[in-house]
Design goal:
By secondary structure, the chain is of the alpha/beta class. The protein is built from 13 helices and 9 strands. The chain has a 5-stranded parallel β-sheet with strand order 6-5-7-8-9, with helices on both faces. Strand 7, helix 7 and strand 8 form a beta-alpha-beta unit. The radius of gyration is 20 Å and the shape is globular. The protein starts with 5 loop residues before the first strand and ends in a 5-residue tail after the last helix. Keywords: Transferase. GO terms for molecular function: transferase activity. It comes from Ciceribacter sichuanensis. This is Polysaccharide pyruvyl transferase family protein.
Length: 345
């Protein structure tokens, strides 16, 4: 047990909804516990367990997940208290027992008065949230408007975004924490996948923690530039989607990806492909000469994405069982008390 903690979570210059929840949830649950000069780092919501974890005197991992890079060095793990990880796949990669995982820490939002499920009379509309890396050079907002779906940016202020998720009738989620928060707020949700950047491993890690399946609906590229971007992603560090989303395939994909990253040609190949996309393919497609072709592809892509969103909105939605969710949420609260001494009520 520690007197204070320093929060560790992913920070991006353009903001990202799921990560930004860390900035206010923990202070709301345990006021005064968090200090920027604390010696113990608290690894909370996010796919954070990897070699980017900085050195610290002590670490506490609380509901974080594995999913992108290799595990931290033993020098970090030897100073780490693992209160819990996000799901069974994270526990498997870390060689932990089945009692090591609970679920994503955002489930604790349901203890906050402002995050109680909205009455049916207050719920309205279908909202869609894209992955925060898949928002540029796309026509997703236009496709949503054409499909009668409300576009919700992961870069918008996170408290207001949470409130809009709370009052939605249905959430279509490309961004995983749109689904996690919707489930926490007891709003049905539907998973979609806009590119190979959508990480099957971490989605399964979470859904399996709440005894739910995961089968994302693939959306087509919504613009000509997005089409080129998505085609090159698997060659430049953006290959995280598994076509047959089984736990075995996700684990195999994660382990194979770590091996590929360690090969001597990985970084040169990635840099070459990034350069080709940035300096040749994209400029060529956005040049004046290519305008007629780009507009033609854009129109067809927008129509296809609009229709795909309409169909997705009518698909079978997901929602974890109330008893399963409440059990996991309460277990998170118990483990939070064990490592912080604070009772969540």
């Amino acid at each position: 047990m520690h007197d204070s903690f320093r929060l560790h979570y992913y920070r991006h210059s353009l903001s990202n909804y799921g990560d930004e929840i860390n900035g206010w949830l923990w202070e709301s649950l345990a006021p005064g516990l968090w200090r920027d000069d604390a010696e113990t780092l608290f690894c909370g919501i996010g796919t954070l367990i990897d070699q980017t974890m900085p050195d610290a005197k002590k670490w506490v991992i609380f509901s974080s997940g594995v999913g992108y890079g290799p595990l931290p060095d033993s020098s970090i793990l030897s100073k780490t208290t693992i209160a819990c990880v996000r799901g069974p796949l994270s526990a498997k990669i870390m060689n932990l027992g089945s009692d090591a995982y609970v679920t994503d820490g955002a489930a604790l939002l349901s203890y906050l008065p402002q995050c109680q499920p909205a009455p049916e009379s207050e719920r309205h509309g279908i909202v869609f949230m894209p992955h925060h890396f898949g928002m540029d050079d796309v026509q997703l907002e236009e496709a949503c408007a054409a499909a009668g779906i409300e576009y919700l940016s992961p870069r918008w202020e996170s408290k207001a975004t949470t409130e809009r998720l709370r009052t939605a009738r249905l959430v279509i989620a490309d961004a995983m924490h749109a689904a996690i928060v919707a489930d926490t707020l007891r709003v049905p949700w539907i998973p979609v996948q806009t590119s190979s950047e959508i990480n099957t491993f971490k989605w399964l890690d979470w859904t399996m923690s709440l005894d739910m399946p995961y089968n994302a609906i693939r959306l087509p590229s919504s613009s000509a530039v997005e089409l080129i971007r998505n085609a090159t992603l698997p060659l430049r560090a953006g290959n995280f989607a598994v076509r047959d989303a089984t736990p075995e395939n996700a684990l195999r994909h994660y382990e194979n990806y770590q091996k590929v990253r360690q090969t001597p040609w990985w970084i040169p190949r990635r840099n070459i492909v990034v350069g080709l996309h940035k300096h040749i393919a994209k400029p060529a497609l956005t040049s004046g000469v290519a305008t007629p072709l780009r507009k033609f592809i854009d129109k067809r892509a927008l129509d296809a994405t609009t229709e795909a969103l309409r169909k997705a909105a009518g698909a079978t939605s997901y929602l974890s069982d109330d008893r399963v969710f409440e059990s996991k949420r309460d277990e998170l609260a118990s483990r939070f008390k064990a490592v912080t001494g604070r009772i969540i009520q």
